[in-house]
Amino acid sequence: MAEASPLPTENSARPARRSPGATPVVGLTGGIGGGKSAVAALLAERGAIVIDADAAGHEALLRPEVRERLVERFGPGILAMEGDARIDRRALGRIVFADPAALRDLEAVVHPVMVDQFRREIEEARARRDVPLVVIDAAILLEAGWDALCDLVVFVDAPRATRLERVGRRGWSDAELRAREAAQWTPETKASRADYVLSNAGGLDDLAAAVDRFIAWMSDRDFRVRVGEESRHRSPSPEPSPLRRGG
Question: Could you read off the pLDDT of 151-202 as tens digits, one per residue?
């Protein structure tokens, strides 16, 4: 897939999602092992506020009203241990990833709570003058419909062999990667729904350069990308970062 290429054709016909004049919200997704979290970290180094969907999901499970509804649906076996009110995420995962209906029930309880948190964090970030952009880092951004909160969607792309090598460092087999991929949209489908495809097939220096090209692409399309002096000095790129424009 071409490096750092916007996807015109069918995507150009999609209604604009921008909030005019507001700090842009970027939805960040990708294939498993694609490196979206590394992209999120690089954007954070350049001043972005990153909203981690996984962390938001974990926080949602700690809420008493969420826990009560899940225990009612899935039984007390999803609790960590007798007398412990916390949800055992592994036990819950074994249930929902083996049963699509159970997964939908879980999402119906947890996702609205997460969306409320996303909205609050976006509003708080947009109230700050020193935040150049907000990023929602979410593997299931598109499947969950969270792209509706975003001004644009970025797909982080990497060849499957590269992704398998990366997840292999976590102890995953090819079969485990396939099983987890089956619970998400295919990388090709996600890329076709994105506004921008960012390649992560090389090393960290290559990725940092690709992130800066993405920021330049945003700036060229009149997104209000701005940073303060503190963010400028954190850029790892050896070249002047396009994020500095207009700062």
Answer: 999 999 988 888 888 888 888 888 878 877 877 898 899 999 999 999 898 8
Close Cβ partners of 51 (under 8 Å, ≥ 6 residues apart): 117, 118, 121, 122, 134, 135, 136, 137
In this structure, the answer to whether residues 39 and 101 fall within a common structural domain is no
- Residues 89 and 148 reside in one and the same domain: no
What CATH number is given to the structural domain containing 233? 3.40.50.300
Q: Which helix (DSSP H) or strand (DSSP E) does residue 227 occupy?
A: none
pTM given for the model: 0.79
Same-domain check for residues 62 and 41: no
Contact by Cβ (8 Å): 43, 225: no
42 with 164, same domain: the answer is yes
